[in-house]
Protein backbone atom coordinates (compact mmCIF):
# COMPACT_ATOMS: atom_id res chain seq x y z
CA UNK A 1 0.00 0.00 0.00
CA UNK A 2 2.87 2.39 0.75
CA UNK A 3 4.26 1.77 -2.72
CA UNK A 4 0.86 2.47 -4.27
CA UNK A 5 0.71 5.78 -2.40
CA UNK A 6 4.24 6.63 -3.57
CA UNK A 7 3.13 6.09 -7.16
CA UNK A 8 0.04 8.23 -6.52
CA UNK A 9 2.20 10.99 -5.06
CA UNK A 10 4.43 10.89 -8.13
CA UNK A 11 1.39 11.29 -10.42
CA UNK A 12 0.12 14.24 -8.38
CA UNK A 13 3.47 16.05 -8.35
CA UNK A 14 3.98 15.45 -12.06
CA UNK A 15 0.55 16.62 -13.22
CA UNK A 16 -0.39 19.37 -10.78
CA UNK A 17 2.34 21.67 -12.05
CA UNK A 18 1.53 21.25 -15.74
CA UNK A 19 0.08 24.18 -17.65
CA UNK A 20 -2.82 22.09 -18.98
CA UNK A 21 -4.02 21.19 -15.46
CA UNK A 22 -3.84 24.78 -14.23
CA UNK A 23 -5.65 26.06 -17.33
CA UNK A 24 -8.39 23.42 -17.02
CA UNK A 25 -8.81 24.33 -13.35
CA UNK A 26 -9.20 28.02 -14.19
CA UNK A 27 -11.56 27.35 -17.11
CA UNK A 28 -13.77 25.09 -14.96
CA UNK A 29 -14.07 27.72 -12.23
CA UNK A 30 -14.76 30.54 -14.71
CA UNK A 31 -17.46 28.54 -16.51
CA UNK A 32 -19.29 27.78 -13.28
CA UNK A 33 -19.05 31.40 -12.13
CA UNK A 34 -20.29 32.59 -15.52
CA UNK A 35 -23.26 30.23 -15.42
CA UNK A 36 -24.14 31.46 -11.93
CA UNK A 37 -24.32 35.05 -13.22
CA UNK A 38 -26.44 34.18 -16.29
CA UNK A 39 -29.83 34.23 -14.47
CA UNK A 40 -29.00 37.65 -13.01
CA UNK A 41 -28.20 39.07 -16.45
CA UNK A 42 -31.30 37.54 -18.06
CA UNK A 43 -33.72 38.56 -15.33
CA UNK A 44 -33.38 42.29 -16.01
CA UNK A 45 -32.52 45.02 -13.49
CA UNK A 46 -33.44 44.64 -9.83
CA UNK A 47 -35.15 48.06 -9.86
CA UNK A 48 -36.68 49.81 -12.87
CA UNK A 49 -36.55 53.61 -13.22
CA UNK A 50 -39.80 55.13 -14.50
CA UNK A 51 -40.27 58.79 -15.35
CA UNK A 52 -43.72 60.07 -14.37
CA UNK A 53 -45.66 63.00 -15.80
CA UNK A 54 -48.80 63.80 -13.83
CA UNK A 55 -49.95 61.95 -10.71
CA UNK A 56 -47.35 59.63 -9.22
CA UNK A 57 -48.69 56.09 -8.71
CA UNK A 58 -48.58 54.32 -5.36
CA UNK A 59 -45.35 52.55 -4.53
CA UNK A 60 -44.69 49.45 -6.62
CA UNK A 61 -42.08 46.86 -5.73
CA UNK A 62 -39.03 46.92 -8.04
CA UNK A 63 -40.01 50.28 -9.57
CA UNK A 64 -38.61 53.70 -8.67
CA UNK A 65 -40.84 56.57 -9.88
CA UNK A 66 -39.31 59.97 -10.68
CA UNK A 67 -41.63 62.92 -11.42
CA UNK A 68 -40.97 65.18 -14.43
CA UNK A 69 -42.70 68.47 -15.32
CA UNK A 70 -43.83 67.51 -18.83
CA UNK A 71 -43.68 64.81 -21.51
CA UNK A 72 -40.72 66.42 -23.27
CA UNK A 73 -38.61 66.23 -20.09
CA UNK A 74 -39.63 62.59 -19.57
CA UNK A 75 -38.69 61.71 -23.15
CA UNK A 76 -35.34 63.45 -22.67
CA UNK A 77 -34.74 61.28 -19.60
CA UNK A 78 -35.51 58.21 -21.68
CA UNK A 79 -33.13 59.28 -24.43
CA UNK A 80 -30.39 60.00 -21.89
CA UNK A 81 -30.74 56.59 -20.23
CA UNK A 82 -32.00 58.06 -16.95
CA UNK A 83 -35.29 56.12 -17.18
CA UNK A 84 -36.36 52.71 -18.48
CA UNK A 85 -39.86 53.93 -19.36
CA UNK A 86 -42.12 56.96 -18.93
CA UNK A 87 -45.70 57.00 -17.59
CA UNK A 88 -47.58 59.94 -19.11
CA UNK A 89 -50.68 61.28 -17.28
CA UNK A 90 -51.61 57.77 -16.12
CA UNK A 91 -52.78 56.95 -19.66
CA UNK A 92 -49.81 55.75 -21.72
CA UNK A 93 -46.32 54.25 -21.38
CA UNK A 94 -43.45 55.47 -23.51
CA UNK A 95 -40.15 53.61 -23.96
CA UNK A 96 -37.02 53.81 -26.06
CA UNK A 97 -37.19 50.68 -28.22
CA UNK A 98 -39.13 47.62 -27.03
CA UNK A 99 -40.64 47.85 -23.57
CA UNK A 100 -39.26 45.35 -21.07
CA UNK A 101 -41.96 42.69 -20.71
CA UNK A 102 -41.60 42.40 -16.92
CA UNK A 103 -41.74 46.19 -16.47
CA UNK A 104 -44.82 46.40 -18.70
CA UNK A 105 -46.63 43.78 -16.61
CA UNK A 106 -45.72 45.55 -13.36
CA UNK A 107 -47.06 48.88 -14.63
CA UNK A 108 -50.22 47.28 -16.05
CA UNK A 109 -50.96 45.54 -12.75
CA UNK A 110 -50.30 48.73 -10.75
CA UNK A 111 -52.61 50.71 -13.07
CA UNK A 112 -55.36 48.08 -12.82
CA UNK A 113 -55.16 47.86 -9.03
CA UNK A 114 -55.26 51.67 -8.72
CA UNK A 115 -58.43 51.85 -10.85
CA UNK A 116 -60.12 49.07 -8.87
CA UNK A 117 -59.23 50.73 -5.57
CA UNK A 118 -60.52 54.14 -6.73
CA UNK A 119 -63.87 52.56 -7.67
CA UNK A 120 -64.33 51.34 -4.09
CA UNK A 121 -64.28 47.67 -5.09
CA UNK A 122 -62.37 45.37 -2.73
CA UNK A 123 -60.91 42.17 -4.17
CA UNK A 124 -59.52 39.59 -1.80
CA UNK A 125 -56.46 37.96 -3.39
CA UNK A 126 -56.42 34.20 -3.79
CA UNK A 127 -54.35 32.22 -1.33
CA UNK A 128 -51.75 30.11 -3.07
CA UNK A 129 -50.67 26.92 -1.38
CA UNK A 130 -47.91 24.76 -2.89
CA UNK A 131 -45.93 21.71 -1.84
CA UNK A 132 -42.97 22.17 0.45
CA UNK A 133 -40.45 21.84 -2.37
CA UNK A 134 -42.44 23.48 -5.18
CA UNK A 135 -40.68 26.82 -4.73
CA UNK A 136 -37.33 25.13 -5.26
CA UNK A 137 -38.30 23.07 -8.31
CA UNK A 138 -36.78 25.42 -10.87
CA UNK A 139 -33.62 25.90 -8.81
CA UNK A 140 -33.23 22.14 -8.34
CA UNK A 141 -33.55 21.60 -12.11
CA UNK A 142 -30.88 24.23 -12.74
CA UNK A 143 -28.51 22.68 -10.20
CA UNK A 144 -29.08 19.21 -11.69
CA UNK A 145 -28.44 20.45 -15.24
CA UNK A 146 -25.21 22.12 -14.16
CA UNK A 147 -24.23 18.97 -12.28
CA UNK A 148 -24.60 16.87 -15.45
CA UNK A 149 -22.10 19.02 -17.32
CA UNK A 150 -19.63 19.22 -14.44
CA UNK A 151 -19.63 15.47 -13.76
CA UNK A 152 -19.34 14.54 -17.44
CA UNK A 153 -16.52 16.98 -18.07
CA UNK A 154 -14.52 15.94 -15.01
CA UNK A 155 -15.08 12.20 -15.49
CA UNK A 156 -14.11 12.09 -19.15
CA UNK A 157 -11.25 14.53 -18.63
CA UNK A 158 -9.80 12.53 -15.72
CA UNK A 159 -10.25 9.16 -17.42
CA UNK A 160 -8.55 10.40 -20.59
CA UNK A 161 -5.63 11.65 -18.49
CA UNK A 162 -5.24 8.14 -17.03
CA UNK A 163 -5.26 6.54 -20.48
CA UNK A 164 -2.79 9.05 -21.93
CA UNK A 165 -0.46 8.55 -18.96
CA UNK A 166 -0.47 4.78 -19.46
CA UNK A 167 0.29 5.08 -23.18
CA UNK A 168 2.98 7.71 -22.55
CA UNK A 169 4.82 5.45 -20.09
CA UNK A 170 4.43 2.45 -22.37
CA UNK A 171 5.62 4.17 -25.57
CA UNK A 172 8.65 5.72 -23.84
CA UNK A 173 9.49 2.39 -22.14
CA UNK A 174 9.48 4.13 -18.75
CA UNK A 175 6.99 1.54 -17.55
CA UNK A 176 9.69 -1.14 -17.83
CA UNK A 177 11.88 0.78 -15.40
CA UNK A 178 8.97 1.44 -13.04
CA UNK A 179 7.92 -2.21 -13.00
CA UNK A 180 11.40 -3.19 -11.96
CA UNK A 181 10.67 -1.47 -8.63
CA UNK A 182 6.89 -1.85 -8.19
CA UNK A 183 4.27 -4.42 -9.04
CA UNK A 184 1.87 -3.86 -11.94
CA UNK A 185 -1.20 -3.57 -9.70
CA UNK A 186 0.59 -0.95 -7.59
CA UNK A 187 1.43 1.13 -10.66
CA UNK A 188 -2.11 0.64 -11.98
CA UNK A 189 -3.73 1.61 -8.67
CA UNK A 190 -1.31 4.44 -7.92
CA UNK A 191 -2.02 6.11 -11.26
CA UNK A 192 -5.77 5.90 -10.66
CA UNK A 193 -5.52 7.22 -7.08
CA UNK A 194 -3.12 10.04 -7.98
CA UNK A 195 -5.06 11.36 -10.95
CA UNK A 196 -8.31 10.85 -9.04
CA UNK A 197 -6.98 13.16 -6.33
CA UNK A 198 -6.42 15.82 -8.98
CA UNK A 199 -9.98 15.25 -10.20
CA UNK A 200 -11.26 15.80 -6.65
CA UNK A 201 -9.25 19.03 -6.44
CA UNK A 202 -10.87 20.16 -9.69
CA UNK A 203 -14.32 19.23 -8.40
CA UNK A 204 -13.65 21.07 -5.13
CA UNK A 205 -12.64 24.21 -7.03
CA UNK A 206 -15.78 24.00 -9.17
CA UNK A 207 -18.07 23.57 -6.14
CA UNK A 208 -16.31 26.35 -4.24
CA UNK A 209 -16.48 28.72 -7.21
CA UNK A 210 -20.16 27.90 -7.72
CA UNK A 211 -21.10 28.56 -4.10
CA UNK A 212 -19.05 31.78 -4.03
CA UNK A 213 -20.75 33.00 -7.22
CA UNK A 214 -24.18 32.08 -5.81
CA UNK A 215 -23.38 34.09 -2.70
CA UNK A 216 -22.19 37.08 -4.75
CA UNK A 217 -25.31 37.10 -6.94
CA UNK A 218 -27.73 36.53 -4.09
CA UNK A 219 -28.78 33.14 -5.45
CA UNK A 220 -27.60 31.41 -2.28
CA UNK A 221 -30.87 32.46 -0.61
CA UNK A 222 -32.80 30.55 -3.28
CA UNK A 223 -30.84 27.31 -2.86
CA UNK A 224 -32.99 24.40 -1.67
CA UNK A 225 -32.52 22.85 1.77
CA UNK A 226 -30.16 19.89 1.94
CA UNK A 227 -27.43 21.43 -0.24
CA UNK A 228 -24.78 19.95 2.05
CA UNK A 229 -26.10 16.47 1.32
CA UNK A 230 -26.18 17.20 -2.42
CA UNK A 231 -22.55 18.36 -2.37
CA UNK A 232 -21.36 15.35 -0.33
CA UNK A 233 -23.33 12.98 -2.54
CA UNK A 234 -21.84 14.53 -5.67
CA UNK A 235 -18.30 14.01 -4.38
CA UNK A 236 -18.98 10.37 -3.44
CA UNK A 237 -20.63 9.57 -6.76
CA UNK A 238 -17.75 11.25 -8.59
CA UNK A 239 -15.30 8.97 -6.78
CA UNK A 240 -17.29 5.87 -7.78
CA UNK A 241 -17.72 7.02 -11.38
CA UNK A 242 -14.08 7.97 -11.67
CA UNK A 243 -12.90 4.62 -10.27
CA UNK A 244 -15.05 2.77 -12.79
CA UNK A 245 -14.14 4.74 -15.90
CA UNK A 246 -10.47 5.30 -15.02
CA UNK A 247 -9.99 1.53 -14.56
CA UNK A 248 -11.46 1.05 -18.05
CA UNK A 249 -9.25 3.84 -19.40
CA UNK A 250 -6.06 2.35 -17.90
CA UNK A 251 -6.92 -1.12 -19.20
CA UNK A 252 -7.75 0.08 -22.72
CA UNK A 253 -4.71 2.37 -22.76
CA UNK A 254 -2.39 -0.54 -21.96
CA UNK A 255 -3.49 -2.28 -25.17
CA UNK A 256 -1.78 0.24 -27.48
CA UNK A 257 1.72 1.67 -27.74
CA UNK A 258 1.05 4.97 -29.53
CA UNK A 259 -1.05 8.01 -28.66
CA UNK A 260 -2.46 7.96 -32.20
CA UNK A 261 -4.21 4.67 -31.47
CA UNK A 262 -5.71 5.82 -28.19
CA UNK A 263 -8.92 7.37 -29.50
CA UNK A 264 -9.94 4.24 -31.37
CA UNK A 265 -9.26 1.88 -28.47
CA UNK A 266 -11.19 4.14 -26.07
CA UNK A 267 -14.28 4.31 -28.30
CA UNK A 268 -16.31 1.79 -26.23
CA UNK A 269 -15.60 3.76 -23.04
CA UNK A 270 -16.34 7.19 -24.49
CA UNK A 271 -19.54 5.87 -26.10
CA UNK A 272 -20.68 4.50 -22.74
CA UNK A 273 -19.85 7.80 -21.04
CA UNK A 274 -21.76 9.76 -23.67
CA UNK A 275 -24.84 7.56 -23.22
CA UNK A 276 -24.56 8.04 -19.45
CA UNK A 277 -24.39 11.81 -19.96
CA UNK A 278 -27.48 11.84 -22.19
CA UNK A 279 -29.51 9.81 -19.70
CA UNK A 280 -28.34 12.05 -16.84
CA UNK A 281 -29.33 15.16 -18.81
CA UNK A 282 -32.79 13.67 -19.35
CA UNK A 283 -32.96 12.84 -15.63
CA UNK A 284 -32.31 16.49 -14.75
CA UNK A 285 -35.54 17.45 -16.52
CA UNK A 286 -37.62 14.34 -15.71
CA UNK A 287 -36.09 12.95 -12.50
CA UNK A 288 -39.11 10.75 -11.74
CA UNK A 289 -39.41 9.32 -15.26
CA UNK A 290 -39.19 5.54 -15.69
CA UNK A 291 -35.93 5.69 -17.66
CA UNK A 292 -34.26 7.93 -15.08
CA UNK A 293 -35.45 5.83 -12.14
CA UNK A 294 -34.29 2.53 -13.65
CA UNK A 295 -30.91 3.68 -14.96
CA UNK A 296 -30.13 5.58 -11.75
CA UNK A 297 -29.73 2.12 -10.19
CA UNK A 298 -27.89 0.41 -13.07
CA UNK A 299 -24.06 0.83 -13.12
CA UNK A 300 -22.30 2.75 -14.56
CA UNK A 301 -25.25 5.01 -15.49
CA UNK A 302 -25.93 5.49 -11.78
CA UNK A 303 -22.62 7.34 -11.33
CA UNK A 304 -24.12 10.37 -13.09
CA UNK A 305 -27.87 9.76 -13.08
CA UNK A 306 -28.32 9.20 -9.32
CA UNK A 307 -26.55 12.39 -8.15
CA UNK A 308 -28.47 14.34 -10.77
CA UNK A 309 -31.79 12.82 -9.65
CA UNK A 310 -30.93 13.52 -6.02
CA UNK A 311 -30.25 17.16 -6.88
CA UNK A 312 -33.43 17.53 -8.95
CA UNK A 313 -35.88 15.87 -6.54
CA UNK A 314 -36.19 13.87 -3.35
CA UNK A 315 -35.07 10.26 -3.91
CA UNK A 316 -35.90 7.47 -1.42
CA UNK A 317 -32.92 6.46 0.70
CA UNK A 318 -33.46 2.80 -0.21
CA UNK A 319 -32.98 3.58 -3.93
CA UNK A 320 -29.80 5.53 -3.23
CA UNK A 321 -28.42 2.71 -1.04
CA UNK A 322 -29.23 0.05 -3.66
CA UNK A 323 -27.70 2.15 -6.43
CA UNK A 324 -24.52 2.83 -4.43
CA UNK A 325 -24.16 -0.86 -3.47
CA UNK A 326 -24.46 -2.04 -7.08
CA UNK A 327 -22.04 0.65 -8.22
CA UNK A 328 -19.45 -0.43 -5.63
CA UNK A 329 -19.74 -4.04 -6.87
CA UNK A 330 -19.30 -2.84 -10.47
CA UNK A 331 -16.26 -0.75 -9.52
CA UNK A 332 -14.58 -3.69 -7.77
CA UNK A 333 -15.25 -5.96 -10.76
CA UNK A 334 -13.89 -3.43 -13.28
CA UNK A 335 -10.81 -2.70 -11.13
CA UNK A 336 -9.97 -6.41 -10.93
CA UNK A 337 -10.53 -6.96 -14.65
CA UNK A 338 -8.68 -3.75 -15.54
CA UNK A 339 -5.69 -4.67 -13.40
CA UNK A 340 -5.56 -8.07 -15.10
CA UNK A 341 -5.59 -6.53 -18.59
CA UNK A 342 -3.01 -3.92 -17.58
CA UNK A 343 -0.71 -6.57 -16.09
CA UNK A 344 -0.78 -8.67 -19.25
CA UNK A 345 -0.62 -5.92 -21.88
CA UNK A 346 1.41 -3.00 -20.54
CA UNK A 347 4.81 -4.53 -21.37
CA UNK A 348 3.79 -5.71 -24.86
CA UNK A 349 4.86 -3.10 -27.39
CA UNK A 350 4.31 -2.97 -31.12
CA UNK A 351 0.96 -4.11 -32.50
CA UNK A 352 -2.24 -3.43 -30.58
CA UNK A 353 -3.09 -6.15 -28.06
CA UNK A 354 -6.58 -7.57 -28.37
CA UNK A 355 -8.73 -7.21 -25.27
CA UNK A 356 -9.95 -10.81 -25.37
CA UNK A 357 -6.36 -12.03 -25.59
CA UNK A 358 -5.32 -9.95 -22.57
CA UNK A 359 -8.26 -11.23 -20.54
CA UNK A 360 -7.40 -14.85 -21.36
Walk me through what this model shows.
Helices cover 67% and strands 5% of the residues. β3 and β4 (92-94) form a beta hairpin. The chain has 2 domains: 2-39 and 136-359, no CATH class; 48-118, no CATH class. The chain is elongated, with a radius of gyration of 29 Å. The longest helix has 35 residues, at 137-171. A 4-stranded mixed β-sheet has the order 2-1-3-4. The protein is built from 14 helices and 4 strands. α5 packs parallel to α8, α8 (227-253) packs antiparallel against α12 (302-312) and α10 packs parallel to α12 (302-312). The mean pLDDT is 84. It has helices at residues 2-16, 19-42, 71-79, 101-118, 137-171, 174-178, 184-217, 227-253, 262-265, 267-285, 290-295, 302-312, 317-345, 355-359; strands at 48-53, 63-67, 85-88, 92-94. The protein has 360 residues and is mainly α.
Describe this protein with a few key phrases.
360 residues; mainly alpha; 2 domains; four-stranded mixed β-sheet; 14 helices; 67% helix; transmembrane
The backbone outline, from C-alpha atoms, is: elongated
The assigned structural class equals mainly alpha
Provide the domain count. 2
Q: Would you report the number of β strands?
A: 4
Provide the β-strand percentage band.
Answer: 5-15%
Largest sheet: 4 strands, mixed
SSE sequence, one letter per element: HHEEHEEHHHHHHHHHHH
Low-confidence spans: none
* Number of separate helices: 14
Give the helix level as a range of percent: 55-70%
Amino acid sequence: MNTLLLVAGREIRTRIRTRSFIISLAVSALLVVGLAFVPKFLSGPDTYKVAVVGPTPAAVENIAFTPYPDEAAARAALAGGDADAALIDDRKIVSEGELDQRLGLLLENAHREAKIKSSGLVITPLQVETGADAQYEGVRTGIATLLVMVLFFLLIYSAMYVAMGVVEEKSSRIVEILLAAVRPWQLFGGKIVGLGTLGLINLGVVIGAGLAAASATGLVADLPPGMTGIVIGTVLWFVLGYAFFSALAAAFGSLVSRQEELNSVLTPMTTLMTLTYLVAYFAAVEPMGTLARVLSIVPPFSSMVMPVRSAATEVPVAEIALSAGLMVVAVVAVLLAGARVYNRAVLRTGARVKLAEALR
